[in-house]
Amino acid sequence: MSVLSAQMQRVVLEAEVNMRNLDALEEQLLTLHEMVHRENRTVSAAKEELLAELWTALGGNKRKLRGLNGHLFLLRNIGAYRSRAAAHVAAALQALEGMSEDMEDLRERVAAPELIGERIPVEVHMKSIRAGLERLQQGRTRAQEREEETVRRLLGVEEED
Fold it and tell me: Locations of Basic and acidic residues compositional bias (predicted)?
């Protein structure tokens, strides 16, 4: 039981490290979003200025105009990818938090025989651990479903825009 408890503690620690990494990723995504927004304004202004020139009206700046349109397209897609990545990060955070809670519950169930001693039969402890494992598996399944739903919801919103 102590080996299982140590493994559970290790998994919980890894989940916490992953949650911190996901938090850092979310901050990087926010920074990227701000940069894309600023760059989008700059490129849009350059495009408006180019369109205002007489030479463009006569068709002389087609290459420049195509380049600016390409930049705007790229910037808009980066924003969409950022939204998708943010949704994945949020779903992963929810999943990790749920799994961490379930693992803590399972760790407590595994440690219960050491705390209580011989007063409760081994069969009862085994049933408790089995119930904890089933709950952990159900939590993992729910986490996957939540992540898929978040992605579907995000993609559905983007398709409507």
Answer: 142-161
Residue 135, classified by CB atoms within 10 Å of its CB into exposed (0-12), middle (13-18) or buried (19+), is middle
Token pair for 106: 């399972």
Among 68, 24, 62, 67, which Cα is nearest to 45's? 68
Question: What's the confidence (pLDDT) of residue 159?
Answer: 45
Please tell me whether residue 142 adopts helix, strand or coil conformation.
Answer: helix
CB 89 within 8 A of CB 29: yes
- Average pLDDT in the chain: 74
- If you average pLDDT over residues 46-54, what whole number do you get? 78
Count up the domains in the chain and report the number: 1
Q: What percent of the chain has pLDDT over 70?
A: 75
Mean pLDDT computed over 92-113 = 72
Q: For the chain, give percent helix, strand, coil, nearest 5.
A: 95, 0, 5
Residue 134 belongs to domain spanning: 2-160
